[in-house]
Design goal:
Blueprint lengths: L1 H9 L4 H6 L1 H21 L1 H14 L5 E7 L5 E7 L34 H9 L6 H7 L3 E3 L6 H4 L15 E3 L1 H5 L6 H13 L3 H17 L5
Parallel strand pairs: 3-4
Antiparallel strand pairs: 1-2
Helix pairs in contact: 1-9, 3-6
Amino acid sequence: MERTMETNMIKIDISKEIEDKKIQFAIKRIIDFILALIGIILLSPVFILVTVWIKLDSKGPAVFKQIRVGKNGNHFTIYKFRTMIPNAEKKQELQIDAASLDNFVFQSKNDNRITKVGAFLRKTSLDEIPQLFNVLFGNMSLVGPRPEIPDVVKYYPEHYKQRLLVLPGITGLAQISGRGEIELGKTICFDLTYIKNFSVWFDIVILFKTVFSVFKKEGAF
C-alpha cells in the first residue's frame, strides 16, 4: 500500500505549482544568498580547521569536487570536504540496476574508503558546509532535493525528472526524514512533496529540523 502511494505521488505533475510560486522562489534565492554569505563568513575558522585536519589525516586535497545534476538538468561542480581516501571513486564501481531504481541507496554504512576524519565529518555533516559556496554561486539552494550524479539521473523515468525543476539543496525534506539511508524511490517522493508544498516558511521549518537531525546523527554515514 505504501509503495502504491509513493508511486502515485511521484507521477503527479507539479510544474504548475512551481509556476504559481515564482515570487516565493525569487524571495528564496535572496534569502539563500544572504544566509550563505553570512555562513561563509562566520564559519571561516571552521573551514580552516577542517582543511588542516583533513590534510594531517590523509594525503590528497581537502575539498572534494564532483559533477552533479542541477536545475533543468544542468551539470555543475559540487564542493564538499573530502571524507574518503584519494581516488575513492576509481576503487569502487557504482552498481546501478535501472530495473530496481526505486530501491537504490547511494551511501553504504560499511564503506572502507571513508577516512577516520571523514567518518566524523559525515556524522556531523561538516563535510557539507563548502556547499555554501554552491549556494552563493546560484547552482544550489539551502533547501531542496539533493543533487544527483549523472550516472543515476540518466536512468530516471520521466516522472523522476520533476525533481530537476528546482535548484538542488544542501538539505531537504528527504534529509530530515532519513538522510543517507532511504531508497531513491522514497527520496523522490519526499522531494516532489517538498516542491509541491514549497513555501519560504516550509524552508525555514526544514532548516530548523535539519539542525536537530544533525545533532541526533541518524542516517548519516
